[in-house]
Amino acid sequence: MRVLPELVLTPEGLETGRAVLITDGRIAGVQAAGAAQPGDERLPGKALLPGGVNTHNHTFQSLLRGLGDDLDFMGWRDRVLYPFSQRLDREGIKIGAAFAFAELLLHGATTCVDFFYLQDEGNENAEAVIEAAREVGIRLVLARTFYDWDGAPKRYREAPADAARRTRELISAHRHDPTCVVQPAPHSAHGASSAMIRAGWEVAEAEDTRFHIHVAEGQYEGERTLKEHGATPIRYLDRLGVLGPRMIGVHCVWLDDEEIALMGARGAALSYCPSSNMFLGDGITRVPELLRAGVRIGLGTDGGCTNNRHSVFEEMRMTSLLQRVRLLDGTALSAERAFAMGTRGGAEILGLETGAIARGQLADLVAVDLEDPSLHPRNDLLKSVVYAMSARAVTDAWVHGRRVVADRRLATLDQARLMARVREVTKGWAV
Ligand SMILES: [Zn+2]
Predict the structure, then answer these.
(1) Nearest-5° angle of CA 301, CA 304, CA 305?
(2) How far away, in angstroms, is 417 Cα from ligand 1 center?
(3) CA of 281 to the centre of ligand 1 (A)
(4) Which of 20, 186, 311, 345 would staple 107 via disulfide (CB 3.0–4.6 Å)?
(5) Is the peptide bond before 307 cis (omega within 30 degrees of 0)?
(6) What is the residue-wise DSSP string for 251-269?
(7) How many whole angstroms from 410 Cα to the centroid of ligand 1?
(8) Which of 347, 329, 247, 246 has its CA nearest to residue 287?
């Protein structure tokens, strides 16, 4: 198949008169359009961009949107997250996942990490999420959580050996899955014991995967980790021996200078979720300092009830704007840098060959309508995509070469029916 947009954004820049050749889920080449061929997908008036890569989400949380929007973190956790996540059976989990994936695709994100922690001591719930991703058509990284803090609901919790064994089984089951990979995810320094964090890291080592962990999201966490383990979060993880190139630390808002340098020195990566950090009043991660230290960065939306939007393009904008406010400097972080974090940077930290329109990359693409007012006037398209583009401008998406959004609607399943199911599952929910 060939896709022929008016403009295509490749690593070389914006190009016209090009065709993107797709074979077996990958980009086989970007070539001169030449004469028309049978099966050509023409996209006049549209630009083709790499799909957004969402490096952090909790999909079932989309069903909790609007329930605790103006609470503080503890209030939200105890009055919304814990009690309402208890109401979800496997079908509810699957609907929540499909709902989140659908919204992300419609907003131009073609890859999503689900940091998934409703295990019920098994893999069946995680499999329901994986099934939802396949049906909706998004590329999924199932970050299977390791959780053993006894203050959390029982459904989240497992013994370290059980979590490790089940995660290895899930990794094996999906080793040859073209659109899903499984990676371990010890929850955090407060949600997972030292043994649990080590167990997650050991699975990543044994299976040669990345692993995800929440790090220093709220200010209280540093103090708590220091009190309980005698070190601040990054130092603690380093002491456990898990701080290294496999690690994707989520948030990393409250790090001191030495911790930033240590993350860089050990080659750890960051999943940065600016809107969620703002929504929960967490603070501002020191992104330029982390970049200077050599930390690799991808962007995430976090869950649908702590953002509350589901767009990686939105996170690109917030990434840049927040640093301008923090540093009182309009040049603090460029659109190009933010765009890279939301696409190929995110893919790189996840170990996926996506996020750029280039030969050999996975065919995860998004088309935007160049006629949309938010992309006018036509000066610098990339800057407008980051700072100005409305979600309305996203018209089409492909994942692994499969058309999953067409003319602003899901092409894979009945969108109206899915929204009806979301309303059914959440009927009568109130705080
Ligand atoms: Zn999270």
Answers:
(1) 120
(2) 28
(3) 14
(4) 311
(5) no
(6) E--S--HHHHHHHHHHT-E
(7) 26
(8) 329
CA 306 / ligand 1 centre spacing (Å): 9
Distance of CA 373 from the midpoint of ligand 1 (Å): 34
The CA 214 to ligand 1 mean position distance, Å, reads: 6
- Are 341 and 333 contacting, i.e. CB atoms less than 8 angstroms apart? no
Burial of 13 (C-beta count, 10 Å sphere; 0-12/13-18/19+):
exposed
Exposure of 21 in the CB half-sphere (CA atoms within 13 A) = 12
User: What's the full length of the chain, in residues?
Assistant: 431
Distance 192 CA to ligand 1 centre (A): 14
Please give the distance, rounded to the nearest whole angstrom, from the Cα atom of residue 97 to the centre of ligand 1. 15
Tell me the CA–centroid distance for residue 9 and ligand 1, in Å: 31
Question: Can you read off the two tokens belonging to residue 39?
Answer: 């099966």
**Cβ pair 395, 407 in contact under 8 A:** yes
Kindly give the distance from the C-alpha atom of residue 118 to the centroid of ligand 1, in angstroms, as a whole number.
Answer: 13
Determine contact, residues 84/63, Cβ cutoff 8 Å.
yes
| Residue (of 272, 264, 247) closest to 342 by Cα position | 272
Decide: 42 and 390 in contact? Cβ < 8 Å: no
pTM of the model: 0.98
Q: What is the longest distance spanned by two Cα atoms in the chain?
A: 68
User: Would you call 52 helix, strand, or coil by DSSP?
Assistant: strand
Per-residue pLDDT of the chain (431 residues; tens, 9 = 90+): 999 999 999 999 999 999 999 999 999 999 999 999 999 999 999 999 999 999 999 999 999 999 989 988 888 889 999 999 999 999 999 999 999 999 999 999 999 999 999 999 999 999 999 999 999 999 999 999 999 999 999 999 999 999 999 999 999 999 999 999 999 999 999 999 999 999 999 999 999 999 999 999 999 999 999 999 999 999 999 999 999 999 999 999 999 999 999 999 999 999 999 999 999 999 999 999 999 999 999 999 999 999 999 999 999 999 999 999 999 999 999 999 999 999 999 999 999 999 999 999 999 999 999 999 999 999 999 999 999 999 999 999 999 999 999 999 999 999 999 999 999 999 999 98
Tokens of 226: 């220091």
Tokens linked to 56: 């952090």
In the reported structure, the alpha carbon of residue 143 is separated from the centroid of ligand 1 by a whole-number distance in angstroms of 11
Q: Separation of 395 CA from ligand 1 center, angstroms?
A: 29
- Rounded distance from Cα 57 to ligand 1 centre (Å): 6
Compute the chain's Rg from CA coordinates: 21
